[in-house]
Amino acid sequence: MKTLKQAFFQHAAKQHEVLELALCKQQEGYFLRKRQGRVCGQLQEMKWEVGQDQARAITAFEAEIASIGAQGFVPGTQPGASAVSQLYDLATRRAMKPGALLQRLSSEIQGRKPAAPVLPIRRVFRLLAEHQLPAAEEGLLRLGPPSSTEERYHWLAAVGRCSAGHFHGYGTGGSLWEEVVQAENLPFVRQMAAASCYWAQEKSFSAEQRKTLLSLCPQRLRQLLEKAGNQSLYDTALELMQQGPKKLLGKLGWLYLAGREQQQVKAAVLKLCCALPLVNAYVPYLQHLMELALVLDDAYFIAQLLYHLEHECYQGEPFLAPSPQGPAAIWSRLANDSRAYQQLKSEMHKQINRLSGQLFRWLLRMGENQNLMYLRVATKMLLCYQQPDYRLEAKVFAPMAVSRYRFHSDSKEIRREHIHYDAWAGQQAFYLLLFGNSSRYALRPYASKWQCVPPFRPGGPIARQREEAFPALWDRQPASLLFLATRTPHPWVKNFALKALRDHPLYLEAYRQRKGS
Questions:
Q1: What angle do CA 209, 240, 262 make, to 5 degrees?
Q2: Shortest CA distance to 87 belongs to which of 114, 69, 61?
Q3: How far apart are CA 6 and CA 4, in angstroms?
Q4: CA triplet 18, 21, 27: central angle to 5 degrees?
Q5: pLDDT tens digits, one per residue of 15-63
Q6: What's the rounded Cα separation, in Å, for the pair 514 and 260?
Q7: Which residues neighbour 438 within 8 Å (Cβ) at sequence distance 6 or greater?
Q8: How confident is the prediction for the chain on average, in pLDDT?
Q9: What pLDDT was estimated at residue 53?
Q10: What order do you get walking across the sheet with 43-48 strand by strand?
């Protein structure tokens, strides 16, 4: 006989999208506190005696959930709400088979007016995914994607959960991956792949489910290899993929070495590295490739990888940066509601800081040793930066100020100081290349961001003197400066190159002579 606590938790697992349950034991009995997620903001409390009949308690609980689903989720004033409410009620009680339910849902979507509610159809999609039956997946595919963008996303997620299992209301697999890979939306691919890898480590999944989830990421990354146009490389990846997902990742170093002379192969391997989620299961493979590139002095690969770690996976918000192709608002709500997603984001922050910090220290050593490898990597990395969209990036990469209290030994007083940071201050290598010898910015020991040196504030006047690190090293190759000045669209990079050329009289004199002759 199941205890009351076990019965409640079993029922809560089926209704995890409707209620969040917290059960606390007290002296007089069990108290059940339920909270309606994103729909009903009020809290209700129900007291259950230890000796109460369990069957009667569960029946009353189901009736209350059905009433909440019929009243709270569907506004009755909108057209078509009653029909979708009935579908939701039928799906909750599982009173209809998936095929019949899909037929009703299809007719309802096709005949629905634009003002009809979106939320109930989303709930039906998720409830259908909980069946985890082939009929549900086939029916959703026959149904086709809805016209609404939000409904389309949840339709794709429902198809993914039917084919690969579900976790916390969001799934990966099938058509969802096809959709984002075809759009080449790599940030969305990374965040979905990272979520699948994270939840695959949960003990609540069976061995087969964990294997399926772990295989999702390399299977979709293999499609990037196919799109690179190299058939032999794709065949090799396909053969390795049949041996298991980690075989492909373990052979990335071999693919990189074999295709160093072919630009298409190198670009395909680089896409694989940029699409890998930065979680513990995949970081060693990226670390291995990074060490290979450092040993072989591959300036192009190092520059692209450093740009990816510092710019695309920016240290502020690597997941939730606004993307015109990805549903950033949905992931923003998920980040605020899910503790596990916060843990995943924190883990990826640490990995980004560690990998980008290693490349930053390597680049600094190359400059201190007056190695020309510093110029090669710096030139290729600065060329990656495009014209910034300040309106789009201001929402995430905004200037910030941090206050702290500091004890001054001269006056024996504790004073409050303000430290100002620029919008992109977390990109250590970028600021080293442009402002490593500047009086406006400074990188304190053990700090991860370049801070503004008082009295300079973000948005202040630009200095006329040269500010880049190792100016004598740049003077040895003025052709690189001219190449940056004529090719880069980024205003900061162009300003740095023009100031360096202005203060290089020998090169300017030779340029005038060649132009005059």
A1: 130
A2: 69
A3: 6
A4: 150
A5: 433 333 333 333 333 333 333 333 233 223 333 333 344 444 444 444 4
A6: 37
A7: 463, 467
A8: 61
A9: 44
A10: 19-25, 30-36, 43-48
